[in-house]
Write a structure and sequence with these properties.
heterodimer, A: alpha+beta, D-Maltodextrin-Binding Protein, domain 2, Dipeptide-binding Protein, domain 1, 4 domains, seven-stranded mixed beta sheet, four-stranded antiparallel beta sheet, B: mainly alpha, MetI-like fold, 10 helices, 77% helix, elongated
């Protein structure tokens, strides 16, 4: 089965690359012209991760990039994050908490309607969160919102919702501004949620068949924000192959794409038909090892593995300089609550000494899984192999197919390349590293760390809270199993006739309502 | 026989023994590859996996005849290092396939009884399965190692070789010397090895050359699809795949291994073509001599 997938990708890549390179320029522009007349304005967008038969529109189960894209077209949340990762209103207009931070009240936007005409009100919010937290839903996001008491989410009146929390959480609005909390319509059968959800968002589902190449969304004529959206139809496809995506935007086969790697950006910058869009993002590229599995179960081995990395070289070679250096801490230095440290300098001798101390004087042999699924994985793994070999860490690279990397390799192999979209400090620490997290990719379980996070969430004093988050980061940086050397900038591109699009550093947030074309 | 009669025969014999010009070109190129494969590691300017031998995506220069790739590795050195594994894998797979397929084909062609019938139907079934799909299936089921690739390719080519060997055998078994050997009471094995095999050697040689060319492309395809050697092995197919994403920055890392592969395949085909013509002519001449 996955052999077939690979063939499909390579065929598509081949068609796109050769076709685009040979014929595209003038021909595509010529074909493009009639689109401006008569026909509805269609925005063609392309996600950068494979979209297979597991694709979904159900926000509670969203994992892949194409999922996030279509959910953003159809649904909206109470709260969104602005580009500094602090909470901003969307379907909620305002919020307040009690003095202890364990009871939160949200006022909702008036006059919002679901796609089927049903007015948006508090009961839909209650339904959404109860469903999300229900163990039967099995949402991977539920654990990060475990503080919410599902039984105590109440509709105070039509436009007021109250959450009671099991533990005080002062960052609660930001905590629920994640990829899972999009508001569903109460009463829609569970079976429809996967492919034809009803939301309040700017677009309605027209056609989405998981596994099909293109899904289509049409304008929501009664969208509550006046004058939006600015296009009539959105076509979403997934082009996981980066060169194919670049060729597609150059040839005008798509109008907008994101999740670009570094390689093609220089070329795109030279192309007058394409505009490159970038933003500084705390997107995490990491090499993650299981801290409970030999040889990684010794902290000295983990530290040795961190000391061999030349972070500046990683930045230049993997990201072509378009990014920032990381220090094995998933919270980027400019994000609120970040621990600002001097990035660990490369020290091969120190790494060798640590390995010897840990009982590996002749070095260690490890197998690192990599894939083309996220741009930069192959380069990062190859570079790491070269850097690590000097300290006696012999890395055997195994390249896994990109179509099922996240289901068949990630969380299943002890040493993998992984990536995390940009998040605020709390989420960046909690989602991968809390011992209770479903996504604990490093098997690193430290009660002290969990305690820091829990306590920080309940601390109303900002200085104290910052200190707790920073202690957690320090522990993770020194002891954890993640080698985080770089934060790539988010890169995207649009055709020159597309305007109004901003990349969001929280990768799962993609607002297409203000994009206009032509 | 007069001198005048011998002369044309002698000159035509000389012409027959020599390869055509294109055959010589092919042979020379193959020899060059073998030379590179054997001696390359001693004179290649950089290691195959050495990063930052220059800045990334450098064009061709004296330091980097084929430029550098995205990690600043020297493409020329990687192509040179890759030659050895490509040639070893190709020839190992082809030799295995020709030995196994040849034996099966000769025995079945000689027996021509129910064993032949069953054997050939099995061969037909194996041939009817698309090679690449079957190869991906085997490799993803069993695992991913260089020797497995060799064995898989050999396994896929064996029924095809067997078919050719059997066809060649059918032409030979009707000859009187086979009947004579049978009358002398020689064993089946001895007839296959001593009477038939030497007389289909030419066909098998050509088959070997053609299969080698296929094997290079096939192994390259597996590497390209990520089913051959893991990165950063300097395997040509894998190199093309890795460099493809950066083709807009520099074409050298794509073109160099692709060209190396193409030239080798063309050379083998030239030689195979020329060999087969040579053998056709020789195949005709003993018959003439008999008369």
């Amino acid at each position: 089965m996955y052999g077939k997938d690979i063939l499909r990708i390579s065929r598509r890549a081949l068609l796109a690359t050769t076709g685009a390179a040979l014929a595209a320029g003038p021909l595509a522009t010529a074909l493009h012209v009639p689109k401006a007349f008569a026909q509805p304005k269609t925005l063609r967008i392309a996600a950068g991760e494979a979209d297979g038969a597991t694709g979904t529109l159900d926000p509670a189960l969203s994992t892949a990039d194409p999922d996030a894209a279509r959910i953003n077209l159809v649904f909206e949340r109470l709260v969104v994050l602005d580009d500094t990762f602090s909470a901003a209103p969307q379907l909620a207009t305002s919020w307040e908490s009690n003095a202890t931070g364990d009871e939160w009240t949200f006022k909702l936007q008036e006059g919002v309607k679901f796609h089927d005409g049903e007015p948006f009100s508090a009961k839909h919010v209650v339904y959404t969160f109860k469903r999300l937290l229900d163990p039967k839903t099995a949402s991977p996001g539920a654990s990060s919102m475990a503080a919410i008491d599902p039984a105590a989410i109440t509709a105070v009146d039509d436009l007021t919702v109250r959450f009671k929390l099991k533990a005080a959480t002062v960052e609660f609005p930001a905590l629920i501004a994640n990829r899972f909390t999009y508001i569903l319509r109460e009463g829609q059968p569970e079976s429809e949620l996967r492919t034809s959800g009803i939301g309040t968002g700017p677009f309605k589902v027209q056609k989405f068949v998981p596994g099909d190449d293109v899904s289509t969304y049409v304008k929501n004529e009664s969208y509550w924000r006046a004058g939006l959206p600015k296009v009539d139809v959105v076509e979403l496809r997934a082009i996981p192959e980066e060169s194919a995506r670049i060729a597609a935007i150059q040839s005008g086969q798509i109008d907008l794409c994101w999740d670009l790697g570094r390689a093609g950006v220089e070329e795109l910058q030279k192309n007058p038909d394409v505009k490159v869009v970038t933003t500084r993002a705390p997107f995490v590229l990491t090499l993650s090892c299981w801290a409970d599995t030999p040889p990684f179960d010794d902290v000295r081995v983990r530290q040795a593995m961190k000391y061999v990395v030349d972070r500046e070289q990683m930045l230049q070679l993997v990201l072509r300089g378009l990014g920032n250096i990381g220090d094995d801490n998933p919270v980027a230095p400019w994000v609120q609550y970040a621990l600002k440290t001097e990035p660990r300098a490369r020290d091969v001798e120190k790494a060798k000494a640590l390995l010897a101390e840990a009982g590996h004087p002749d070095g260690i042999d490890v197998e690192l899984f990599t894939s083309e699924t996220t741009p930069g994985f192959i380069e990062m793994a190859t570079l790491y192999q070269a850097m690590a070999s000097e300290a006696g860490i012999r890395v055997k690279l195994t390249k896994a197919p990109s179509s099922d990397y996240w289901s068949a390799v990630w969380l299943k192999q002890p040493f993998v390349c992984s990536s995390w979209s940009g998040r605020g400090a709390d989420d960046a620490l909690a989602a991968p590293y809390l011992s209770t997290s479903d996504w604990n990719e490093t098997h690193w379980k430290r009660p002290e760390f969990d305690a820091f996070i829990t306590e920080a969430r309940a601390t109303t004093d900002v200085a104290k809270r910052t200190e707790l988050y920073q202690k957690a980061q320090q522990l993770l940086r020194d002891d954890g199993g993640a080698i985080i050397s770089v934060f790539p900038d988010a890169l995207g591109a649009v055709r020159a006739n597309v305007s109004g699009w901003k990349l969001h550093p929280q990768q799962s947030t993609k607002d297409f309502s203000e994009v206009s074309i032509g | 026989m007069s001198v005048a009669e011998i002369d044309p025969v002698a000159s035509s014999t000389r012409a027959r023994i020599g390869l055509s010009a294109s055959g010589w070109v092919g042979a020379a190129i193959i020899l060059l590859y073998v030379f590179v494969a054997v001696t390359g590691p001693w004179w290649a300017p950089y290691g195959a996996t050495k990063i930052l031998t220059g800045s990334p995506f450098e064009g061709a220069s004296l330091q980097h005849p084929f430029g550098t790739d995205n990690l600043g590795r020297d493409v020329f050195s990687r192509v040179v290092f890759g030659t050895r594994s490509v040639l070893t894998m190709t020839f190992a797979a082809t030799i295995l396939a020709v030995l196994a397929g040849g034996m099966i084909g000769v025995v079945l062609g000689y027996l021509r009884n129910w064993v032949d019938e069953i054997g050939m139907r099995i061969v037909d079934i194996l041939i009817s399965i698309p090679t690449l799909v079957l190869a991906l299936l085997i490799i993803s089921a069993v695992g991913n190692s260089l020797w497995l690739v060799v064995v898989t390719v050999a396994f896929l080519f064996t029924p095809r070789v067997a078919r050719v060997a059997r066809a060649a055998t059918l032409n030979v078994v009707t000859n009187d010397y086979v009947a004579a050997a049978l009358a002398r009471g020689e064993s089946t094995m001895s007839i296959c090895l001593r009477e038939i095999l030497p007389n289909i050697m030419g066909v098998m040689l050509v088959e070997f050359a053609i299969r080698s060319a296929f094997a290079i492309i096939f192994i390259g395809s597996l590497g390209f699809l990520g089913f051959g050697a893991p990165p950063p092995t300097p395997e040509w197919g894998l190199m093309i795949n890795e460099a493809r994403a950066n083709a807009t920055n520099s074409l050298w890392p794509v073109l160099a291994p692709a060209a190396a592969m193409a030239v080798l395949v063309i050379a083998i085909n030239l030689l195979a073509d020329s060999l087969s013509r040579l053998i056709d002519q020789q195949g005709v001449s003993p018959a003439k001599g008999d008369k």
